[in-house]
Structure prediction request, 610 residues.
Amino acid sequence: MNFKHEFSVGPQTLVAMIMVAVLMVACGGGGGTRTPNQSLSRKGPGPLIQIPTPPAPPALGNVVPIVIDAGPVPTTASEINVAYVSVTVCTPGTYGATAACQTIDHVLVDTGSSGLRLLNSALYSNLTLPAVATNPGGPAIGECMTFADGFTWGSVRSADIYLGGEVAPSVPIQVIVDQPGGTTAVPTDCSSTGGINENTPALLGANGILGVGLFANDCDVCLLWTVPAAYYTCTSTGCTNSNVTSAQVVQNPVALFQQNPVTLVKDNNGVLIDLPAVSAVGATTSLAGSLIFGIGTQTNNKLGGATVYATDSYGNFSTTYNGPNTSYIDSGSNALFFNDSITMCRGTTWAYCPPLPLPLSATNTAASGGNSGSVNFSIVGVDPLGPSIVAANIGGPYGQNGWFDWGLPFFFGRPVFTAISGMSPPTGVPAGPFWAYQ
Amino acid sequence: MHFHTPISTMVKPPKMTTANVALRLFVTLAAICHVAAAHASLGGDSASVEADRAHMNVKHAARLTLSSTGSYTVHETILPTGTLVRQYVSKSGVVFAVAWSGSFVPDLRQLLGPHFDTMTARQAKRVHAGHRLVSQHESDLVIESGGHPRSFVGRAYLPSALPAGVVEKDIQ
Prediction:
């Protein structure tokens, strides 16, 4: 914002401004958390890869493998129930022309958010991802993204994203920890949202987050309004809250997929997550599944007998379990979270520990009040499964009454579609936002 | 019950003169300093509720509701982001609970006062990592924060400061 264009400054105002300045100094204003830690910067240069033109995908080209394992830092921060994929990012516009791509493993697949976020420390220093700026050479765009358990802070940069045979060109992504415009501080309003600053692989539990949720971008409201702790314009002296344009907002890469080079259709209206069932003893070492792009666009992503549950514009539907609950299906939550009087674990203090696998049932209903269906699920105690467990049907209390979070165990043995709002689906497939499962 | 405030109700700041801007800034900053000094908000006095509102740029008055038992008052505020905040003030004037719901997490450093540092300090990763909700239950402080982008919900309260007859289910 240009101050001079808005106001003419008179003597009285100057006095007032000096008062403000004095007060700011007096109460330690202008703060923010300094982050000089060099381990947060990019890793050294590495071998960049070249994507062939067109990419040679297996079969239909709309599938990437999911792995559920102990995570990127298994020795010090062993993860449970986190689904990962590998994502290839390239300098925008280098498609097939020059070697300018890097594949990042252990990127968390999240149906609860939208947009790609990568830790700066997971990127090679010689990978060029141009900063998204307000105008060429102008202030850079920064973002604070809030999650239930913490936040990610960093710059918005542009990347070509390759997932299997799918390509999303010039997508604004968040580079976590990367300091937009050379600023050195996390904005105070960002850290004031509480939670942990998820700025390392151990704290994030991943090298990044691939948000393949219900929406095409991560903040519709930010296109209209300046919201605290969301988007900023930044220079070396600091960041200012700002709205963003549709070309600057971080976007769900699925919504931006080009025509699939094998089948010549766009698999851009949502995703299907297909994970195997997990027995009562859980899975140690690893579990494999698939992230499939498109809904009803290919032979491998047909809705078939799945029931469609529309969500509201906030990404919720409802679940009846010990009364009515606002609820959501979130592959990024590592358990089912709901309030009940089940015995708590002694070791894993946030989880339920029934002495035997506990069969339970709930009813999910579309937000519009349309489709409804019962869900049978079970909860096992996590403590007896041992520290090396990477997948199990676990649950824990939500805390706040009236809420139900269908986390990753909901996906075990139950293929789940997540449809993006505002896309043009093929004939016979409803428009998003919705979840669908059998 | 859950409150999702439509975007259309978001409040646009009125046009202001330069002097007004400076004065408002001064008042706001003074309020921030005052809050920092008084350690208000959760656990603070009822005046801190007004300081919170000033800090979070709320332009209109809170809706006050007396509880059915008369032992506390709920100060209900809709932030400019559309997020609904409820602060629970006992008859003796102590803010014993705060609850929020909406598309954006409110300024918890402001609303939780000194308890904000307790919240962040106790979030070190524990056995079996992965992502989940914030649920901190101590004898003197409970903080629960959940939801997902576009729909957050949470509450914090001081069990020892709950007025007689108030149970945790009353704090929504």
